[in-house]
Amino acid sequence: MRKVLVVAYYFPPMGLxxxxxxxxxxxxxxxxxxxPTVLTVSTRGYFAKDETLLKELxxxxxxxxxxxxxDVNRIFRKQEVVKMPPERLRKILGRFSDAFFIPDNxxxxxxxxxxxxxxxxxxEKFDAVFVTxxxxxxxxxxxxxxxxxxxxxxxxxxxxxVDYPFRFYPTPLHxxxxxxxxxxxxxxxxxxxxxxxxxxxxxxxxxxxLQYNDIQIISQGxxxxxxxxxxxxxxxxxEKMRITFSGVFYENRTPLYFLEALHRVFKHHxxxxxxxxxxxxxxxxxxxxxxxxxxxxxxxxNILGYLEHKECVRYLLASDVLWMMMDDTRSSxxxxxxxxxxxxxxxxxxxxxxMRSLIExxxxxxxDPTDVEQIAAALLQLYDQYERRKLSGARPDxxxxxxxxxxxxxxxxxxxxxxxx
Length: 421
Prior knowledge:
By secondary structure, this protein is α/β, with parallel strands linked by helices. It has two domains: 2-221 and 403-420, 3-Layer(aba) Sandwich (Rossmann fold); 225-400, Glycogen Phosphorylase B (Rossmann fold). 39% of the residues lie in helices and 16% in strands. The chain has 15 helices and 13 strands. It has helices at 20-28, 51-55, 87-100, 110-123, 137-149, 172-188, 197-206, 256-268, 286-294, 309-317, 335-341, 354-361, 372-387, 396-400, 404-420, and strands at residues 2-7, 34-41, 63-67, 128-133, 153-157, 191-194, 215-217, 241-246, 276-281, 301-305, 321-325, 345-349, 365-367. The strands form two sheets. A seven-stranded parallel β-sheet has the order 3-2-1-4-5-6-7, with helices on both faces. A six-stranded parallel β-sheet has the order 10-9-8-11-12-13, with helices on both faces. Strand 12, helix 12 and strand 13 form a beta-alpha-beta unit. Helix 4 runs parallel beside helix 5, helix 5 (137-149) runs parallel beside helix 6 (172-188) and helix 8 (256-268) packs across helix 13 (372-387). The protein is globular, with a radius of gyration of 22 Å. The two termini are 18 Å apart.
C-alpha cells in the first residue's frame, strides 16, 4: 500500500454535494493499493450535517485528522447545523468575503493545517499529496507541502478558481492576485485533475505554459453502492408523476421559472393538477416558499428539506423525473451524476454547453433555464411519456462512465504514474 495525504476542507460530517467527490475517492482508493489519510477541519457548524457519510469509511481503517481553523465558520463551532441565510444576505456576505479574504475566507485554516501536516509527515511516510478545491486555500496548503517535503502534488479542481462564475472581484488588483496565486500553484503541481471539459479549457486558455496533456479530466460521478436500496427500504410509489430536485438554490440557480411553468401547466391543463408532484430536497429558503404560495402550488409541491444522503437517494430512485437548473456554463453540479446513476429521466433547465451535452447523452430533455414556456412544454411532454409508461433514463453504457469506483481507479493511475516517473 502506498500512502497519499488528502487535503480537503470540506469533508463529512459536513453534508451537501461538495463533500461527495472527495469522500468517494478516499473510500475507493484502497481498492487500488493507495491508502489515504485525510487532513480536514474540526467539526463545526455548516449548512448540512450527515454522519452517515463518515460511516462509509469506518470498516476501511482510514485515518481522518482534524485540526482547528481560524476561518469565519469558527463562529459556528458550537452549532451542528447553521440555517442558510436569505439569498440577498448571502450575496452581501459573499461579496464582503471576496473583498477582504484572498483567496477565500478559509485562509485561516492554512497555518493549522500545515502544522498538523508536519506532525503527520514525521510519523509516517507519504508517497504523494492530493488536494481538492474549493476552497482554494487547500491549493495553497498543497503548494507549501510540495515546497517543504518535495512530494508529488496532485491538484483536483471541483470548480474553477479565477473563472468561477460566482466570484466577485471588487478591483482589478483582486483578480490579478488570484491569477498570480493560481499560476504559482499550477507551476508547482505534478498533476492536474479537473471535473469537466469546460474547466480544462478555461485553465489552458489562461495559462499558456500548460500543455493539453498536463490536465486530465476525471468527472464527477455516483457511487453504485448508494443505488443498492433493498425492497424494504424503497419508498412507496404514488399515483403522480414525481419530479425531484436535489440541491441548493443560490445566485442564478432558482426554482422561480420552473414553478411558474408548473403553474402555467395547471392553468391551461387543469386535469393534470393532482397528477404531478414537485419534490425539493435541500435547503429551501423562505423567499422560495413565498413563490410557491403566490402561484398557488402548495398542493403540488413537497418541500423535504435536507435529507441524509441515503434518504436522498431513496427519493431519487422513487421519482419519475429528476430536475436540474443552472444558468452558467462553467460550474458542474455533482448531483447530476447521481441523477444519471439513478437511471431516471432528467429535465435539464440549462444553457448550451457541456452540461446540456451530458444530460442529452443521458437521454434527458433540455430547455432554456429561464424560458417558462419551454419548461411548461417540456413538463407536458414528460407527463405524456409518464402516462404512456415511456419515461426512461440513461443507457447502461452511459451510466457506467460515471461509476465512482472506476473514476477512483483513474485517480490511482495518476498517483501511480507520478511515483513511477
